[in-house]
Amino acid sequence: MSSSAADLPDLMPVLSRGRHRNPRKGACFMELASYLAGERWSDHPSCTHPLLGELARFVNDYTSDENRSRLAPLIPSVIGLATDDVRMDAVIALRCARTALPVVAADRQRALAVSVITATRVLSRLDGAPGGLLDAESSDALRQTPEATRWACRFVGTGTTSLKGFRRHAAPNTVRCAVQGIADACIPQPEDVLRDLLADTIQDCASLLGRPGVSEVPDARALEAAGRLTRRK
């Protein structure tokens, strides 16, 4: 038996909520990513940008046991999406905010409208572009929530957000608010929205790094086995 075969677990980890001590206890999305990347077992592997990993963990945990295996084909696509560029944090926060803004309850809309505007301004500043012009998707999301948008514009004003503060606080809070808001939203199939959000964000991150987009495994049997125990033969 080769050394690589000897290192394989006797059981494929079960894709489930939360952290797990080892593969025999199960695996969350990012723990399985660490395993596939050949890293030490962790739900914070270095192969993936920390905020993208945070989004994946939230989507994993807010998806039901019945539907979580549908996330498995996306796991290989997060491997290698890592950079110190703050643009990545802004791209992730912007995707989360503008996806969630039109569907979440009113008590979350103001915060997410602020996030859309702030993330856009951060990207504009980093790119040396004037004014923080909104893209079409962001404009459409804000247009659907006029009261929250008016409030956010007054709240943000002409001030600027420090890049350090944005990375440490604003961007992670946006991801958390967006996922929780979508999960609690009164919409059909919120878990489908969460999966699409994760897939779209992976695509955004890959594009930022100049890499191919989301590539779900053509034969995902091995990964979809994360939804059930499968003994290695």
Give a quick rundown of the structure.
The chain is an all-alpha fold and 233 residues long.
In words, what does this structure look like?
This protein is mostly helical. It contains 11 helices and no strands. Mean pLDDT is 86; it is low at 1-9 and 217-233.
Itemize the secondary structure elements and their pairings.
Blueprint: H1 3-7, H2 29-36, H3 50-61, H4 75-78, H5 86-100, H6 106-127, H7 136-143, H8 146-156, H9 163-184, H10 190-208, H11 221-224
Distance between the termini: 13 Å
Largest sheet: none
Along the chain, the helix and strand elements come as HHHHHHHHHHH
**What is the strand content?**
under 5%
- Tally the helices: what do you get? 11
Structural category: mainly alpha
Total DSSP E strands: 0
User: Helical amount among residues, as a percent range?
Assistant: 55-70%
What coarse outline follows from CA principal-axis ratios?
globular
> Which regions are unreliable across 5 or more consecutive residues at pLDDT < 50?
1-9, 217-233
Radius of gyration: 19 Å
Mean pLDDT metric: 86
- Oligomer state of the chains in this structure: single chain
Key descriptive features of the protein:
11 helices; mainly alpha
